[in-house]
Specification:
Layout: H1 3-13, H2 19-31, E1 35-41, E2 47-50, E3 61-62, H3 67-74, E4 78-82, E5 87-96, E6 99-109, H4 110-114, H5 120-137, H6 143-146, H7 155-163, E7 168-171, E8 174-181, E9 189-195, E10 199-207, H8 211-230, H9 235-250, E11 256-264, E12 269-275, E13 279-284, E14 287-290, E15 310-313, E16 319-323, H10 325-328, H11 339-349, H12 358-370, E17 379-386
Helix pairs in contact: 1-2, 1-5, 7-8, 8-9
Length: 390
């Protein structure tokens, strides 16, 4: 068994809570590593938190001012030599299908690092395997979930984060990323996606209210849409079933705004149901335009509301951005709303960033625009790049 296969075997044989111990022992034995550290990105996408038995024992490092953050942001290995210790520490991204999870830092003796063949590409493969194993292990342990927290989550935020499919996803036809702010005290915004061999379904949801009530409402609507999607229903029928579920539970006293999109991966044809406040912008050839839809009633407002699909086309090179009302209605310190013009400027300014980084960049600019004005609603951004199918 070669050394790479031996490390993979050790990871897959480890108990869910001992993945870091297993990968450390294997890397020391097979690669001559002298130190290993695993950090996962926090919910706010601002810091990298150490995975350890007692959370928050080790100081976090900031993404935007650290060597670990450089590897996380560039998604490339970053090596840093320590002449005094005669070692080289290599920071490597841990990413699963486009979803950036964190950074594995391995320290090697400088002579071991310099020898041929350089082990860094193999250790990067180990990081990929480690990321998959963490996702599986999270079913059975809280260790990695706790490592993502820079602060305690409210119960509503806990419910909303557990509802998300991830924060990014990549396939040959598309890449997408999404982010919620505030990360630790969420109201009712949410996003969801699912990709099959032929289609991508993407939904952005805004449940009315705040706290637990908003989280319960959004959970009901998202799971109703998932149930309809998994039953093979069309996009309009997914909206209808979720509408009936929300109305049956709340009798019209609570409702959910949602934008439902279904992409044909082969043709770029997009079906859309616009049932509320989330809005869509398209960047094509450096030109930004709002994609208009016929407004339909939010889910659960009335009994048996009919919904209809609209269509538009995406082309290779298109970028789509979806924002909640907490983004485009956010007010500055003098009371001016962020609006579509500022959002269009932000979309153009971030056009060179990958989709996984765009939501956070837009929300940082939004925070600068607000100044000292606190958020009084969730701010949600989802970005999708369309590559098309050859």
């Amino acid at each position: 068994m070669d050394r790479l296969a031996a490390v993979e075997h050790a990871l897959r044989a480890a108990t869910p809570n001992s993945l870091l111990d297993a990968v450390t022992v294997a890397l020391v034995e097979h690669y001559g590593v002298v130190r290993v550290e695993l950090r996962l990105v926090d919910y706010g996408m601002r810091s990298l938190q150490a995975v350890e038995t007692v959370p928050l024992t080790t100081e976090p490092v900031m993404i935007h001012d650290s060597p670990q953050g450089r590897a996380f942001g560039s998604q490339e290995a970053y090596a840093l030599a320590d002449p005094d210790e005669h070692t080289v520490t290599v920071h490597l991204p841990v990413t699963v299908r486009g979803d950036r999870m964190g950074v594995l830092s391995v320290t090697l003796p400088e002579d071991r690092y310099a020898q041929a063949p350089v082990p860094v590409p193999e250790i990067q493969h180990v990081c990929d395997v480690l990321g998959h194993e963490i996702l599986v292990a999270e079913r059975d342990t809280d260790l990695y979930v706790l490592a993502r927290r820079a602060a305690r989550l409210t119960l509503a935020a806990e419910m909303q984060w557990q509802l998300l499919p991830g924060r990014a996803c990549s396939r040959p036809e598309f890449s997408l990323g999404g982010h919620l702010e505030p990360a630790y005290s969420i109201f009712g915004d949410n996003f969801d996606w699912s990709a099959s061999a032929d289609e991508l379904t993407l939904t952005v949801t805004n449940g009315m209210g705040e706290g637990i009530e908003a989280a319960l409402l959004t959970n009901l609507a998202v799971n109703a849409m998932r149930n309809a999607r998994r039953a093979g229903l069309g996009l309009a029928d997914q909206a209808c079933l979720a509408d009936q579920a929300v109305y049956a539970q709340y009798g019209g006293t609570a409702y959910v705004s949602v934008l439902l999109l279904r992409f044909d991966l082969a043709t770029g044809d997009v079906q859309a149901v616009d049932a509320g406040s989330p809005r869509l912008w398209q960047l094509r050839d450096k030109h930004v335009r709002a994609v208009p839809f016929d407004a339909q009633l939010p889910l659960g407002m009335f009994e048996d509301t009919p919904y209809e699909c609209e269509h538009f086309q995406v082309l290779p090179g298109d970028r789509l951005l979806i924002g909640s009302d907490g983004v485009y209605d956010a007010a500055s310190s003098v009371g001016e709303t962020y609006g579509e013009r500022a959002l269009a400027r932000s979309l153009n300014a971030t056009r060179l960033l990958p989709p996984a980084q765009v939501p956070e960049a837009v929300l940082r600019e939004l925070a600068t625009y607000r100044g000292e004005t606190p958020l009084d609603d969730d701010a949600l951004v989802v970005c999708l790049d369309w590559n098309g199918r050859p």
